[in-house]
Design goal:
The protein has 142 residues and is mainly β. The chain is built from 2 helices and 10 strands, in the order E-E-E-H-E-E-E-E-E-H-E-E. The protein has a 5-stranded antiparallel β-sheet. The longest helix is centred in the N-terminal third of the chain and has 7 residues.
């Protein structure tokens, strides 16, 4: 699977909750973290998604917000992944922030240089990656 999205986190589907048009897919990452995706029932069927199947949580770096001192339940976003900032690459306007999760997976975020400054983000800091469930795609190997 080759994709342009910077984040493709491997895991196993733990739950599929079907709705009338969309379904909620819960994916357990290799390190135990949970990622929730909202995708269409058509996609569920075409990918053959079911509990226990290996899959990837896929999302663009530009869809990842960063936060400090954030706890689950403080936002409506379903995905709050806590970790340690491994790297910050400065650009003219934006920065690429790489967050290492406790289980070893890495999440890449593209945020403004001003946001890095206002949050006081530094390598080694604890931080959270925040991703709306509607921004998460699910991928599977052929």
């Amino acid at each position: 699977m080759k994709i342009s999205a910077r984040n493709a986190l491997p895991g196993t589907i733990s739950t599929v909750t079907r709705g009338a048009v969309n379904s909620e897919v819960d994916l357990s990452l290799k390190g135990g973290e949970q990622v929730v995706a909202i995708i269409t029932n058509t996609s569920i069927d075409s990918l053959g998604l079911k509990e226990g199947k290996s899959a990837y949580a896929i999302f663009k770096a530009s869809s990842v917000m960063m936060a400090k001192d954030l706890r689950t339940g403080q936002l409506s976003a379903r995905n709050i992944l806590n970790g340690t900032i491994r790297k910050i690459q400065d650009g003219a306007v934006n920065c690429e922030v790489t967050l290492k999760l406790a289980g070893g997976s890495e999440v890449v975020s593209i945020i403004t240089k001003e946001s890095v400054k206002s949050l006081g983000l530094k390598t080694g800091d604890s931080a959270s990656a925040v991703i709306k469930a509607s921004n998460v795609m699910i991928g599977v190997d052929h």
